[in-house]
Amino acid sequence: MALSGIQIYKMLPQTNCKECGFPTCLAFAMKLAAKQVELGSCPYVSEESKKQLAESAAPPIRLITLRANGTEIKVGNEVVMFRHEKTFYNKPGLFLRVKASDPDLAKKVAAADAYKVNYVGMDFTLDGYAIEADSDLSAAVKAVRDVTKRPLMLIANDVTLLDSSLGLLAGEGTLIYAGDSSNYESLADVAKKHKATLVIKSDSLDDLADLTQKVQAKGVEDMVLDLGGKNLGEWLTRSTQARRLALKSNFKPLGYPTIFFAAQNGVEKEAVYAAQAIAKYAGFVVLDTFAPEMIYPLLVLRENIYTDPQKPIQVQPGVYEINSPKPESPVLVTTNFSITYFAVANEVEGSGLPAWLVVTDAEGMSVLTAWAAGKFDAERIAKAIKGFNVADKVSKKRIVLPGHVAVLSGEVEEELPGWEVRVGPREAVDLPAFMKQALN
Ligand code: SF4
Predict the structure, then answer these.
(1) Which of 206, 225, 335, 375 lies at a C-alpha separation of 20 to 30 Å from 156?
(2) CB 251, CB 245: distance < 8 Å
(3) Where are the domains of the chain?
(4) How far apart are CA 374 and CA 160, in angstroms?
(5) CA distance linking residue 273 with residue 46, whole number of Å
(6) Best of 25, 36, 45, 46 for a ligand 1 pocket test (most atoms within 8 Å of beta carbon)
(7) Domain 5-57 class?
(8) Is 33 within 8 Å of 8 (Cβ atoms)?
C-alpha cells in the first residue's frame, strides 16, 4: 500500500533544512506522497528509510519494457482503475500473430510493418509481432527480424527451441509465451538467461498468483499474465479482479500487465474482443488479422483511452499553408486543439481553396472552451498574427475569426489596426461555402 504523507514524514530527518526546495520536511513528504518530487531531492534520508520508501513507491503493476533495434514498447506501471481518477500511462502493445510455417511470413510481416496511419497529427503503427513455433522457429525469427525492427514475442513449448531462437535476438527485450504449472521452471531458466519477459498462464487467479511467486523465486522479475477465460465476460471479470487486487490491495503476485489473444473465439469476433481488452486493462493485445479497417479503429480507441484527460492533444502554434496559398488568400484563425485544427484544416483542404491558417496557442483547448477560459482572446490572436509575421505573407490584410467568437471581432480590430476582421461560420464544415461566397 502506498504510504501517506505523514508516514513518509516520520522517515525523513525532520530538520527542516530546506535543501530539497521545500520549507519543511512535512511539505516535502506531502509532495513525495503525491509522487510530485523525487526522494533523491533530500540528501539526508537514511539508507533504511530509502529502502522502505522505494518499496512503497514501486508501481502496483510492474513496468515491462520490450525492445528491439531502437524501438521499444512499455506497458504496465498503471495506478488507477478508471482513467478519470488520474490517467492511464502506458498503452497496450498491439501485436500481430504469425505462424513460423507460413510461406509468406516475411511478406506478411513487411506489409503489416509498413502500415502507418496519421490521426490528428500522430502516426500510429502496430507495436510488434508474435511468432508461433509451428515449424522452424529460428528460421522464422531470422526472416521476421530481416523485415521489422519492432519487438517480438515467441510462442513455443519447446524450451531448447526458445533458447536457440532467443540467442538470435541477443540484446533485445523479448516476450516468451508461456509458462504454466508444468513447465515454468525450465522457461524461467531460459527467461533469466536471455533477460526475456515470461508470460505466465493459468485458468485461475489463485494458481497464477502462486506461479508468479515461484517464478520470481527463480530470479525472474519481468512477467506478464495470461488470465485465461473462455469469453468476454470471464476475461473481463478476471482482468478487473487482477487489476483491483494489484492496485487496491497492493497484491504483488498479480501486479503484472496482462496479455490477451483477441481471436481466441474466432476472427469474426476479434475486433470486439480486442476493443474490450484495450479498454479493460490488457498490457498486450495479440491479433491474428492484419486488416487496416480493423486496426485503425483499435488504434484510435487505444489513443483515446490512454490520452491524459488533463492534457489535450495539441498541434504546434504557427501559420499553416493549405492548398499553396497566395498573398491574396484569406487568413483563417483557430486554436491549437488538435481536433479543432484538423476539423478546420481538413475542410479547407478538401475544398481545394487556398488559405493561411493561423493556429494560436490556446493551451490545447477548443475555440469555445479556450475563449471561456481566457486563452483565446483578442490579445492572443493579435499576438499570433504579429508574432508569426502574417502581414509579410499577405497582400490583403483580412482575417476570419471562428463564428463562435464573433464577440471578439471589435477587440481584434482594435488590437490589429489596418486589418479587416471577418466573422466566419461556427462549424468547420461550413467554411468552404463561406470562403466561396463571402471572401471574394
Ligand atoms: S532536504 Fe530533507 S531534511 Fe531538509 S527539509 Fe527537505 S526533506 Fe527535510
Answers:
(1) 206
(2) yes
(3) 5-57, 64-306, 318-438
(4) 64
(5) 49
(6) 25
(7) mainly alpha
(8) yes
What is the C-alpha to C-alpha distance for residues 393 and 235, in angstroms, rounded to an integer? 58
Q: What is the pLDDT of residues 323-340, one digit of tens each?
A: 999 999 999 999 999 989
What single-letter amino acid sits at 239?
A: S
Find out whether the beta carbon of 22 lies less than 6 Å from any atom of ligand 1.
yes
Whole-angstrom Cα distance, residue 344 to residue 431? 8
Q: Which fold has domain 318-438?
A: Rossmann fold (3.40.50)
User: Rounded to whole angstroms, what are the CA distances from 280 to 195, 202, 240?
Assistant: 28, 19, 7
Superfamily classification of domain 64-306: Dihydropteroate synthase-like (3.20.20.20)
Angle CA 434–389–122, to nearest 5: 70
Taking the C-alpha atoms of residue 217 and residue 267, their distance in angstroms, rounded to an integer, is 38
> CA-to-CA distance for 193 and 190, rounded, in angstroms?
5
**333: nearest Cα among 382, 372, 373:** 382
C-alpha cell belonging to residue 58: 514501486
Q: Kindly state the cell numbers that stand for 156.
A: 513455443
CA distance 394 to 409: 20
What phi and psi, each to the nearest 5 degrees, are found at residue 169? -110, 35
pLDDT at 421: 96
- Ligand 1, atom 4, residue with closest C-alpha: 17
**Segment 24-50, tens digit of pLDDT:** 999 999 988 876 777 888 999 998 888
Adjacent-strand bridge partners of 95: 128, 286
